[in-house]
Each structure stands twice: as C-alpha cells, then as structure tokens.
Amino acid sequence: MENSATPRQRWALYCITKKDYRNEILSKEEAAKLIKELGDPNYKKASKVKKTITDELLDYLKEHIDDLYHACLNEIDYKSIVEDDIHVPENKRKKYAFVGCGCGITWLKYRKSKRAKEIDEAARKFRENEVLNMLVKKLPKKDYNYLKKIGCPFEAIWYQMQNLQTKYYSLVIKFAETKGIEMRIESHLD
After folding, report:
1. DSSP-assigned letter for residue 105
2. CB under 8 Å, gap of 24 or more: what pairs does 76-80 form?
3. What's the pTM value of the predicted model, to 2 decimals?
4. 180: closest CA among 115, 108, 121?
5. Residue 67 and residue 62: Cα distance in Å, rounded?
6. What is the pLDDT along the chain (190 residues), one digit of tens a residue?
7. Where are the domains of the chain?
C-alpha cells in the first residue's frame, strides 16, 4: 500500500506499546498520530506504573457503580414507619421513618490469603469512602435532602441495608474471581 505506515513507524509503535504492528493495516498519518499520542511522556509514565489489585478493584467498582446506584434506588423505594411497642399508649407512641428492606451485617469469608485479605480490606475502605461518594454524587440532591430530613440519611441506608451490602460484596466477589480468588458472603439480619 502506497500510503502505508513505514517500517520505522511500526518499529516505533512496537517500542512504545510492545504490540506487533507489522501486519496491522495502518496509514502513515494514523501511525504518526499514534506515535505522537502514545509517545507522550505522560502516557509512558502511566503505562509503566503497574496497577495494584486494590487499584483494579476500585476501577471495577467504578465500572459497576450504576448497578449499585439502581440497587440503592430500589431500596429507597421501600418506605415504612416504625413505632414504639403496642403496649405503650397510642397517644404516647413515638414513630420513626424507616427506608429500605431491613438492616443487616454482611462480610466476606475466604481462605487465609494475602491477596484475598487485601481485596477485603480495600473493599471495606472503598465502601465507606470512594463508592459512597460516587453514589452520593449520583443521587439527586432533593432525594438526598429528603432522606436526611426524615431522619434516615442516605449514608445510613448505604451502611445498614442488608440488600445493598450483599449487592456490593457480590461485585467484590466477582472481581476476586477474575483474580482466581474464592470468596463468599456471610450475612444476617440485624
């Protein structure tokens, strides 16, 4: 092909990416653009830095944040009122707003393994920080404020609802499986 990338361009691309471009259909212009783009010093630095398993977990959770968000919306749709014991006179009973299906405690179980422990610790940290922050940003402000106003803030729903914890940790388990690590969820209602 007359306008095909030159052998020198293909060699430069190989040196940058470690991918064989000899049989790729690539024009001189496309090759030049790739060399310029991929040859950027910032690109090289980023490509040389190997991601840790916790970085990969966070990336995985970011990719699946919409799944978690929709699970949160489903949980928020369940609204009820909890009130004092029926033995308390009705005019003195206190009532409380309750959102969600039920509180629970959920954790991961796995064989003793450094990588599994690393995933577990990162998952707990991300759940309380990065993932929570991503979900709060997605939630409409009016809904966030409403939940706070009725005394059931979104953060409490995220931390306490068994369904949400199970959904979150099931994503962590799917990620762990891609690394050859077996985990399972343990959970009980609170």
Report:
1. E
2. 76/100, 76/143, 76/147, 76/154, 76/157
3. 0.70
4. 115
5. 10
6. 568 889 898 888 888 888 888 888 888 888 888 888 887 655 555 455 678 999 999 999 999 999 999 999 999 998 888 888 888 888 888 888 889 888 999 999 999 999 999 999 999 999 999 999 999 999 999 999 999 998 889 999 999 999 999 999 999 999 999 999 999 999 998 8
7. 7-48, 53-189
